[in-house]
Amino acid sequence: MTETSDSALFKGAIGWMANNPVAANLIMIVLLCGGLITAYTIKQEVFPDFEIDSVSVTVPYPGASPEEVEQGIILVIEEAVRGLDGVDEINSIAGEGVGSVVIDLLLSANRQKVYQDIQQEVDRITTFPEETEKPRITLLSRKRRVITLAIHGSLSENVLREMAEQIRDTLLQNKNITQIELSGIRSKEISISVSKNKLRKYGLTLGELANIVKRNALEIPGGGIKTASGEILVRVKDRRDYGSEFAQIPVISTPEGTQVLLGDIAEIEDGFEDKDIYAEYQEEPAIMMDIHRVGKQ
């Protein structure tokens, strides 16, 4: 009985290891080393990587009440996208001056195709009120912030922003970094101030002056011209990005050929929008730079 039980004990993998202790120890060492190497090289994430299957449609409607937004925007968009393939659920919010529609997609749906279908349907809508602005259609995605840098110092807002933009451009040259956002800063704004006396002197109204500025700060496509050697694209390029460029806009032209420029009658200043947005680090003005991870980076 003893011999039978001992022979049964040394059968199989356990029996082979018992008879070959050196090989068993080598296998154990290899497995331990492999586990340690994997533990130090495996990618660790606080949250798993996943895609959001939703499309957002936002339409600004300045000055409108929530009821007007619902009737003029929300119901129209819902009716246009409800029957599309791949749409699972529609959630809408009507606020003061803006309407937002979030369209959830089926898990089996092709995200890009449904997004394009929604975009086409919204572009076909012709019954929006005239005061509405262009719809903003976005395929929602989840951003994964990796690190935040603080650019700070006792500097002006303009200089601090220029430094942050230079650092951002330098970091984006790294092939492993593709998305950086600046926060704690205000958007740039050009202010044009004209006194009533100046307007009366030249027989202008504020609306007429605004239209002159608008007509002279355009960048729009003008179609194309077909030639024997190919097609030439035509574009009206009169974009102005700085106050000094706006100052050169002619406001009044006399028959003698003299011109009154916008800079002659108005105070033009390059600045920032009037919002209470700021950031500080170690009691100094700062700009925060959020670096995000995209895909398998």
Description of the structure:
With 297 residues, the protein is α+β, with helices and mostly antiparallel strands. It is 36% helix and 30% strand. It is built from ten helices and 14 strands. The protein has helices at residues 2-9, 12-19, 21-41, 66-81, 111-124, 157-172, 196-201, 206-215, 243-246, 262-265, and strands at residues 54-60, 87-95, 98-105, 136-139, 144-152, 179-183, 188-193, 219-227, 230-237, 250-253, 259-261, 267-272, 280-281, 284-293. A four-stranded antiparallel β-sheet has the order 2-3-1-4. The longest helix is centred in the N-terminal third of the chain and has 21 residues, at 21-41. The radius of gyration is 32 Å and the shape is extended. The mean pLDDT is 81.
Topology:
Elements: H1 2-9, H2 12-19, H3 21-41, E1 54-60, H4 66-81, E2 87-95, E3 98-105, H5 111-124, E4 136-139, E5 144-152, H6 157-172, E6 179-183, E7 188-193, H7 196-201, H8 206-215, E8 219-227, E9 230-237, H9 243-246, E10 250-253, E11 259-261, H10 262-265, E12 267-272, E13 280-281, E14 284-293
Antiparallel strand pairs: 1-3, 1-4, 2-3, 5-14, 6-14, 7-12, 8-9, 10-11, 13-14
